[in-house]
Amino acid sequence: MAWNEPGGGNKDPWSGKGGGEEGPPDLDEVVRKLQERLGGLFGGKQPPGSGSGGGGFGGGGRLSTKVVGVILGVLLVIWLATGIYIVEPAERGVVMRFGHYVDTTGPGPHWHLPMPIERVIKVNVDEISTLTHKAAMLTQDENIVEVELTVQSRIQDAADYLFQDQDPERTLNDATVTVLRVVIGQSKLDYVMTEGRGAVAVTIKERIQNLLDRYKTGLLVTSVNMQPAKPPEQVKAAFDDAIKAREDKERLENQAEAYANEVLPDARGKAARIVADAKAYRDQVIAESEGEASRFTAILAEYAKAPQVTRQRLYLETMEDVLGNNGKVLLDVQEGGNSLLYLPIDQLMKQHQKTQSQTVPSSTAPSASTAIPSDQSPPRRVVDRDRRSR
């Protein structure tokens, strides 16, 4: 049976009557109790008679000035804490205040006025960017050469990189193309393709950096690597032949230089030895001449003292030197003496052979083996030196 049928009594579940059941809660009462609790929590007072007509947070439900200050202080601290930032070692922090550049900060923790007053842009300054350019261009001697260039750069000034140039990478590319064509156009083909490649790369790096500094791009060129220049394919065979001939020339020059380095020291040594021998001979002759002059001076002094004795002595010494080198033997045989005659046959034979080898043999020349008759005495033509000295 339904609760509202006649004769069934008042069984309305929301009336709180009948059946001992309570009705639904009053919404106004719930709001009023919530206001009381909030007011007690924040220090507010509930005026008497407010009842269910409060209807909101007005009146005694308002927050006190102290609580509002605390809340604002907490919010301010949180807002200021959002300005703390950390810059990594490879980065630089660019601080902007209302869109205007203020400062550049290095690695480490920092603080700035939070948004929307200031903001920080972090820029990686250690990252290396690589730009490669390859093109065919004309040299000074009107030859076409293909050049490939690699340029490596990094950010040097973060503020200039962000604000001074609209597109720094494009500026770097344009500067590379311009400088490369100017430098190659001012160089000859042989210089670019051989020993001048390193010097050309250094010149290109300096000029690119000069242009980047003038445009304030904030970029720093770290290296410029230039690949070996190549001629066009149509004339590559002729260039290869020319390069081979140049290498052969260098090889032959190196061989000649090595031979010269081997021969010249030997010739210099021989020349030095000959000069030293000549100096030694000169010193020897000078010394002998000085000795002879000194000896003659001494003999002259003795001759002035005793001319006859000195003259006799010089004669005897001269004859001794002359006869001492003679191969003949002369004997002085006294009368009635029994002297043994000795003939040096071996010496005579040697002297005879030497004479015949130097002159034409004569039929009338006496033989070396001719014997002297025993009954004939040898001529007494040698004067006894001891007798003469007496």
From TrEMBL:
Residues 357-380 have a biased composition (Low complexity). One of its GO terms (molecular function) is peptidase activity. Residues 82-243 form the Band domain. It comes from the Bacteria. It is a single-pass membrane protein. The chain crosses the membrane at residues 67-87. Residues 1-30, 352-390 are annotated as: Disordered. It is found in: Membrane. Residues 381-390 have a biased composition (Basic and acidic residues). One of its GO terms (biological process) is proteolysis. Residues 1-22 have a biased composition (Gly residues). Keywords: Coiled coil, Hydrolase, Membrane, Protease, Transmembrane, Transmembrane helix. CDD domains: SPFH_HflK (cd03404). PANTHER family: MODULATOR OF FTSH PROTEASE HFLK, STOMATIN-LIKE PROTEIN 2, MITOCHONDRIAL. HflC and HflK could encode or regulate a protease. HflC and HflK may interact to form a multimeric complex. Belongs to the band 7/mec-2 family. HflK subfamily. This is Protein HflK. The gene is hflK.
